[in-house]
Amino acid sequence: MHNSQIILYVLICKITTMKFKVIIEEGEDGWYVVEVPALPGCISQGKTKKEALENIKEAIELYLEPEDDFSSISAGQIAEVTV
Q1: Is the per-residue pLDDT at 51 higher than 60?
Q2: Which end of the chain has fewer CB within 10 Å, C or N?
Q3: For the domain that residue 38 is a member of, what is the CATH number?
């Protein structure tokens, strides 16, 4: 890998990094429940806080993954925008 490729890779990684505030609470069963207020319905849990935070990272990635199946959309047009 050339230096220019490494720099480009680093820039892409920095651009795609996002931070979310999460709420973590201990449930009645002793498991930790984590919710992402900015992403409605994005919830996970774990036996420990560490496990719960690892699990919510995966849940966020899946939540943000592009939807390829638009068969459930009944009306309107689909457009794509880049920010």
Answers
A1: yes
A2: C
A3: 3.30.160.250
